[in-house]
Amino acid sequence: xxxxxxxxxxxxxxxxxxxxxxxxxxxxxxxxxxxxxxxxxxxxxxxxxxxxxxxxxxxxxxxxxxxxxxxxxxxxxxxxxxxxxxxxxxxxxxxxxxxxxxxxxxxxxxxxxxxxxxxxxxxxxxxxxxxxxxxxxxxxxxxxxxxxxxxxxxxxxxxxxxxxxxxxxxxxxxxxxxxxxxxxxxxxxxxxxxxxxxxxxxxxxxxxxxxxxxxxxxxxxxxxxxxxxxxxxxxxxxxxxxxxxxxxxxxxxxxxxxxxxxxxxxxxxxxxxxxxxxxxxxxxxxxxxxxxxxxxxxxxxxxxxxxxxxxxxxxxxxxxxxxxxxxxxxxxxxxxxxxxxxxxxxxxxxxxxxxxxxxxxxxxxx
Length: 366
Description:
- With about 375 residues, this protein is an alpha/beta fold.
- About 50% of the residues lie in helices and about 15% in strands.
- It contains 17 helices and 13 strands.
- The model has no long low-confidence stretch (mean pLDDT about 95).
């Protein structure tokens, strides 16, 4: 008698989640012993940050959409816990896989833990050691609750072992963001979003800003605006503006950036955005995932943060932590670095989803 495939819930909540879930969904769909179920919590509800990225990564419409929307951290977390608990009781999976470090990740892990649903955390073990970052609390909570921890790098393994997580619960699978890139690489290479905006490959930089520590403090945001204007005089900048950041900048801030020649555009779907990134001379960001993508592509990444949960992108990759006053100096230094000095970490190779499926199959058979 043939057993039915193991039912696997995949939680998608925000742009980085979609990119991590997509390769895993494709790999699980191709495996006869697993049945992936995509659950969109609705934490990101902007079409360019949700629906369009699903299409770019060839993800199907979600099997379930929880429709959570915006709110405080506690509101979002509570709403997701309530909604996912109800769903999991009606459609109980054999496994739950949560990814990254958003509120939905921790919320679903908590709900599943109380229902005793085996839970896997993909991208486990990352630590900034900065509890002012909501994501750090989500990472800590999720890693304690998860039954299996899939890590991207040796430092993540070391963090979990130092927190007394048993070694048998940890499997280093690599960085699944690289799988997402390889999944649609032909489309990214065929796209010419920079050309549509009037820029030549290698002749511009890309800016992304969204973290509260940068955009919610008016003085800090004003300082960043001045730093970007200084960079614009040396390297033309394209700035896909996150909805949150656009609101914080206001019309005056946007006008000031545009007057300096910085090209402000709306949020881009995955293929268009990676077309921008892959053709850039450098990227200026406060994102976590972009530190990884630029490391994979060998592109200098100026990270406007005091710390990073991805230190391997500094020790082996192309990222460097930068404060606004030093941005221009650090950019010039990064651009002068020989390209052969830019390394990729082990298992950042486009084959992480396959390693995930192998580990899941091994653990399902136990």
